[in-house]
Amino acid sequence: DLAKNIGAAPILMIQARLVSPGNTEAEKKRIHYEYPLLNHQGLLQAFDDTDRILREVASEKGAVLIEATFELTGRGDLFVDQIHLNDRGSQELAKLTAQELGKILGRQTGKAK
Prior knowledge:
Layout: H1 2-5, E1 11-14, H2 25-28, H3 40-61, E2 64-67, H4 69-72, H5 87-109
Parallel strand pairs: 1-2
């Protein structure tokens, strides 16, 4: 609401993360369960709940939603730990974000991207 009040277009992003249902044991060793005090299933549920809330807020408030999770989540080659991207992951996220922002700008100017 604050963004809209100043004439800005709010954009929300669902965070990509290593945590996914198909994590290997090696990937699970890189996930710090002690931070949220949750096991793997609990962490999956917490992320699912957060994603659902972001989708609901974006829908209710008319905000653009970028879902980085679809392309990047669970890809062990892109993460240092459960949520922090390595250099390659950062590049992939930047590329995805640029593509999505290009689509938004294209719609605003009437040009398809």
